[in-house]
Specification:
The complex is a heterodimer of chains A (about 400) and B (about 325). By secondary structure, chain A is an alpha/beta fold. In chain A, about 40% of the residues lie in helices and about 20% in strands. Chain A is built from 13 helices and 15 strands. In chain A, strand 10, helix 10 and strand 11 form a beta-alpha-beta unit. In chain A, helix 1 packs across helix 2 and helix 1 packs parallel to helix 7. Chain B has a single domain, classed as Thiamin diphosphate (ThDP)-binding fold, Pyr/PP domains (Rossmann fold, 3-Layer(aba) Sandwich). The chains are: A alpha/beta (about 400), B alpha/beta (about 325). The structure holds thiamine diphosphate and iron/sulfur cluster. Thiamine diphosphate sits at the interface of chains B and A.
């Protein structure tokens, strides 16, 4: 049965269904409602977990690291500054191959300080060794969290479910929350082979010299690349259970369009509308959403994009001093297989700036805007001579 | 100095966005007006930073910097080192909430004190993470309702005690540390002024009621802060080189209920329907109140607040002759209105 829930509430319900034994968190907007809901569930005895109020995100990440190494399923959530403060521990969790699951309620990073949504926080963690899933809706957030635990525990890799702050976390949408029995069937009880245990002692996080370090990093890379198959297989399993199927990428007319827009996250909803109206006008346009950004689903990108004549990327983050991150990666993937399609790189929606329908539509019309495609053009910039769109 | 009011510097000037009755805004205005504009202010993330610097605007009429949540004491260490390297002895002041002091900022604060930086660290203690919507911090007292320490079927609010940060600070044996609160302006003033005459690391913990998070009427911030002192829950003390050198004597002790009853954050303790099941091992509301009373009594004993040999007591401190309007400077003249 569908329920009308705030995104954060829906996320907390999904976490609860996964039966984590330890929840550790530190408050930061826009993640707060997620952990407040979990705290209430624990206080009411509805979730049999220990809720640990950490003294910083550095500690929160470390607590879930310890909890998983200690043999418990764990959960944390953060955003923005909190995610950045976790950085050292996030790399460490991934390097130790610990199946931690977290939610990043995507938010801009400081300075200047800004609580609103963009993808700079989690994009900055793209090299940390975590699987990253960017969701479009609260339904997808719920379903992805449940899948994330199984993916993490099968692959021994941490998973970050990236949920747009406010746009999703604070928005009420009808959401289907699976039954506990369904989730119990789908997600086996927590098992971690290398649990710290005196009767079968493992060493976690020990040193590695130049003659070994490289191989261990290569194994980590191989595990992430292989995870593409696991994510697909687990997604298919989940679809059998709930009828809701999620792929690595989400296409809306992408495979049959001349011009394909590439986006991540909740922007997809608005883009679908733009695509509908442009297609009604007879234009051959489509959109491809990267649901799974790490591992980068190279094969799927080639499949969906190599027939296009023009690709546009709009992303809510950038690599300062270089340009659009997704644009550069899509370009590299296509170039590797000899496909040379012009790619227009746009950076927009930073710090919660609205990506209005008219702005997105304009991007389809103004192909020459991305003059130097390598850099990325800032959309809706309040300066003369740019793509500023006033209503 | 503000032209409209020769007795105030208005370092933190009007137009900011604090809630009405905000104890932190009140305390920050007192502290910064006493110190003046000839100082450098370093702010941690938190309500004070947010409500004074909204969207490229600023309420600060003195040099002011905010970096991130955890690092204010370390940023200030750098600022102080740079000034002193140039032979500049401009005072450096840190302002942080209790989260930025007791929790995420504690490591940088300890480092700042241990290295002996010439900095005054002011903690506006409103006993929770208010800026993000009232989550518990390690300064939140026992049994308080916050969004991450909610009362529920198995819970009577926060399970853990308020961290005794002053003792942690005292263990650094630094030159000066003190507690103050907005209800006792002259006490606060004396402590700020004293702190400003001392070189080296100094620490001020100012209890700053938050009508939003404490859930009391915005007009009651001063009364609530007075009761925190009069019940013994928040002793006003001074420490020099780690030793207690003065306390504000309680003329008479008020029962903690008088304090708790004004605040929604303790309401569940008085409300029998929300009483947690004793079978789970959680004490019920009445027991929590007794616990809070015992904590107040223990603090009174520890600092000898009832028998201390001092003229400085809760009644006298409220009666001190005000010097000039608002008592900010000892000019002896009234402001022309
Ligand atoms: C690393 C990091 N984690 C979390 C936050 C979110 N955050 C901003 S202010 C704040 C709480 C501030 O609480 P406190 O220091 O007690 O000051 P108050 O707002 O109560 O005055 C939090 C959790 C942040 N900005 N940075
Ligand atoms: S929430 Fe509390 S501390 Fe923050 S501005 Fe409002 S009254 Fe002041």
């Amino acid at each position: 049965m569908k329920k009308l829930l705030e995104g954060s509430r829906a996320i907390a319900e999904a976490v609860k269904l996964c039966r984590p034994q330890i929840v550790a968190a530190y408050p930061i907007t826009p993640q707060t409602h997620i952990i407040e809901n979990l705290a209430q569930m624990v206080a009411d005895g509805d979730l049999a977990a220990e809720f640990i109020n950490a003294e910083s995100e550095f500690a929160a990440a470390s607590i879930v690291l310890g909890a998983v190494a200690g043999g418990s399923r764990a959960f944390t959530a953060t955003a923005s500054q909190g995610l950045l403060l976790m950085t050292e521990v996030l790399y460490n969790i991934a390097g130790m191959r610990l199946p931690v699951v977290m939610v990043c309620a995507n938010r801009a990073v400081s300075a200047p300080i800004n609580i609103f949504s963009d993808h700079q926080d989690s994009m900055t963690m793209r090299d940390a060794g975590w699987i990253q899933l960017y969701v479009e809706s609260n339904q997808e957030a719920v379903d992805s969290i449940i899948q994330a635990y199984r993916i993490a525990e099968v692959c021994e890799l941490p998973v970050m479910v990236c949920v747009d702050g406010f746009f999703l976390t604070h928005t009420f949408e009808p959401v289907e929350i699976p039954e506990q029995t369904q989730v119990d069937d789908f997600l086996p009880p927590f098992h971690f082979e290398r649990t710290l245990n005196p009767s079968n002692p493992f060493t976690l996080g020990g040193g590695s010299e130049p003659d070994n370090y490289l191989e261990i990093r290569a194994q980590q890379q191989a595990a992430l690349i292989d995870a593409v198959n696991v994510i697909q297989a687990i997604g298919a399993d989940y679809a059998k259970l709930t009828g809701r199927a999620y792929e690595l990428v989400d296409s809306y007319f992408a495979e049959q369009a001349d011009t394909v827009l590439v986006v991540l996250g909740s922007t997809m909803g608005a883009v679908r509308e733009v695509i509908d109206s442009l297609r009604e006008q007879g234009q051959s346009v489509g959109v491809l959403r990267l649901r799974c950004f790490r591992p980068l689903p190279a094969q799927a990108l080639v499949e969906y994009l190599s027939a296009a004549k023009r690709i546009i990327v709009i992303e809510k983050a950038f690599s300062a001093g270089a340009g659009g991150i997704v644009a550069a990666e899509v370009r590299a993937v296509l170039q590797q297989v000899g496909v040379l399609i012009p790619i227009d790189s746009y950076i927009g929606g930073l710090g919660g700036r609205d990506l209005k329908l008219t702005i997105i539509e304009d991007v389809f019309h103004q192909s020459s805007l991305a003059k130097s495609t390598a850099d990325g053009v800032f959309l809706d910039l309040k300066q003369p001579g740019t793509a500023t769109k006033q209503e | 100095m503000d032209k409209r009011d020769p007795y105030r510097h208005n370092v933190l000037t009007s137009g900011h966005r604090a809630c009405s009755g905000c104890g932190e805004a009140m305390a920050a205005r007192m502290v910064t007006d006493l110190i003046g504009a000839n100082a450098i202010y370093v702010n941690a993330t938190g309500c004070l930073q947010v409500f004074t610097t909204h969207n490229q605007q600023s309420s600060w009429q003195a040099p002011w910097i905010h970096s991130v949540f955890a690092n204010a004491a370390a940023v200030a260490s750098g600022v102080e080192a740079a000034l002193r390297a140039r032979g500049d002895d401009t005072p450096v002041i840190v302002q942080a909430g209790d989260g930025g002091t007791f929790d995420i900022g504690l490591q940088c604060l300890s480092g700042m004190i241990e290295r002996g930086h010439d900095i005054l660290f002011v903690c506006y203690d409103n006993e929770a993470y208010m800026n993000t919507g009232v989550q518990r911090s390690s300064s939140t007292p026992h049994a308080v309702r916050t969004t991450t320490s909610p009362p529920g079927r198995l819970s009577e609010g926060k399970h853990h005690l308020k961290k005794d940060v002053l003792s942690i600070i005292a263990a650094h044996h630094m030159p000066y540390a003190a507690t103050a609160t907005v209800a006792f302006f002259h006490d606060l003033k004396a402590k700020v002024e004293k702190a400003m005459t001392i070189k080296g690391p100094r620490f001020l913990q100012i209890l700053s009621p938050c009508p939003l998070g404490w859930d009391h009427d915005a007009s009651l911030s001063v009364s609530v802060s007075r009761l925190a002192v009069e019940t013994g829950l928040f002793p006003l003390v001074e420490l020099e080189n780690g030793e207690v050198t003065s306390v504000m004597r309680l003329k008479q002790q008020r029962p903690v209920q008088d304090y708790l009853k004004l605040q929604g954050r303790f309401k569940h303790l008085f409300n029998s329907t929300s009483t947690a099941e004793t079978a789970t091992g959680n004490a019920n509301g009445a027991a929590e109140i007794r616990h809070l009373q015992a904590l107040a009594d223990a603090r009174i004993r520890r600092y000898e607040l009832l028998q201390a040999e001092t003229e400085w007591d809760t009644v006298r401190a409220s009666q001190v002759q005000r010097h000039g309007r608002g008592g900010y400077r000892n000019t002896g003249q009234e402001a022309a209105s």
